[in-house]
User: Fold these one by one.
Assistant:
Number 1:
Amino acid sequence: MRGQCLLGSRDAGVQRNGCGMNGAVEKSSSAREELLDCIEKEHQAERNLCDMLERIADNLLGPFDTELARTSIVTMRRCLKRHVELEEKYLYPVLTKRLCPGDLAENMLEHIRCEHSSDESLGHDTAEQLEQALMSGRVANPEMLGYMLRGFFECRRRHIAWEDAIVLPLARYRLSAKDFRAFSVEKFENSIA
């Protein structure tokens, strides 16, 4: 285990091995914080989306709330795209550069990428089912849609909580302003518009 970087480890031996754990020395950096703040805002938007989807799921046997469904569809597509883009295009590449060979965080990042892919697929399918309900004015199969909605929002809540507890603190610890020279919120907003 000697010389291997562990998630968030502040062991002096780990710092001496040159694995890029400069976050412990550098307290703040505006470029880094700008990206991480942007991710935290996206996480809050997704938590709000999950709350909307849960309200839909809880009321599928009553009148279908078309306005909430319409808002949820737009928000779901926007949030997922932004979430994946922010993390996979901007955060993970720089975080990956700071990892040591055999770093446990490599597996974590790969797992998160897989979750992004499966959540995007589930989000797409769920949005399509909501759209069909909007077009027909009713939910054809409330049990199936409820299952899909709950599967999606429960996965997203777990995913976001895990990133908030592990990934963002790790990024704050290991990364510096130099790692984010290419990032700006304005540039990001223009790239996904």
Note: Residues 104-136 form the longest helix (33 residues).
Number 2:
Amino acid sequence: MKRILIFVLIICVSLVVTFAVFWFNTQPVWLVNKTVEKETLNNLPVKNKAIIEFIEAKGPALAPTYKAAVCTEFVIKVIDNVKSLTKAEKNDIRIITNSELDSLIEADSPIIKGVQTALVKGEKGIEIKESADVLPGDFVQFWNVFQGKAYGHCGIILDIDPNKTLTLYSSHPFTGGYGKQEYLWPEKIYFVRLK
């Protein structure tokens, strides 16, 4: 009987550890309730400031539920408020492909860069190569691969601690739609700023 209890305990601990590793590699670590500091907001590029103010005012209406607006649709709605997107640009943000995502991610294919590809290709955005240059109001697409499965997410930067964490305005199942989520630094990350 004692061996069975020990075996069950080991299985339970293994499941908890596996779930924790999965969660930290694929999901928000924290939900946050902060805003961009006023001084920072006033020193942002004009479009970044407009994006932040729009999201703070309309975020919950843009994604009242996750089903109503997944992360890509939330990003599209935010960009469309500032600069109209073509159908092709919207599809680039949606990352519509029949190819295997993990292969595309490994190859750094433009397809998996989503919002970055859409805005740069459409000459509406500037690729940001250094995370230290990222500002609130910039857009991001990121990916983690966990046990052979790709997990991606996109949103708008609220805050960033390069190579440690990023905090986004986005739509996510964990927040049931619009919310502010903090993530650990992902494996692959692509930033872009509206021109």
Note: DSSP finds seven helices and seven strands in the chain.
Number 3:
Amino acid sequence: MMAARRRVALLRIDDPYVQQALQEAFARYASHWKVIVRGDNDTDNNADLTGVDLQWDEYERIDWDRVDARKMVANWYTERKGMIRKAQLTYNINRLTSKRGSDSTLAKHYPQTFFFELYHPDEVDELLICELPEIKQLDELPEHERQVWILKPSITNQAADVHVFDSTAAFRRYSLALVRNMLTHC
């Protein structure tokens, strides 16, 4: 009986810490993966990637022609701009899981997330009734059974204006403060 072919991974990440972590991870599966490690200063950039199954590299160095031809996979999305913003990622995951149902692997491993638009303080109550009934129902549960939620405006960078809440009152307070802050800076 012939042994299965080991897959080939090309690893080349500029960050030495990440590069080392990747090498250690692939080493645990050495019977399945042959690993080629290239430094970020290699002049051959993408010279002869024939036989490479996975290119784990910086975005700018991915051989997109091979990826598009389905000869290889990469550690990046081809159109990364739609996936790097949390709001876009949430939108795309919600769209995909609504098609595949709540039993899909992705739905089971991605936290329930809601994307909504709020432009004026007067819209909070309507939002709670129409689009976020899960938040409105928080107050009906005993405190020890409430889920903790995160409110993150998509127009801010990093962790600015992130709030954690477990009640409708806290959601109202934080969302109103965010909208008022946005309106004063427009």
Note: Strands lie at 7-12, 33-37, 54-57, 73-74, 149-151, 163-165.
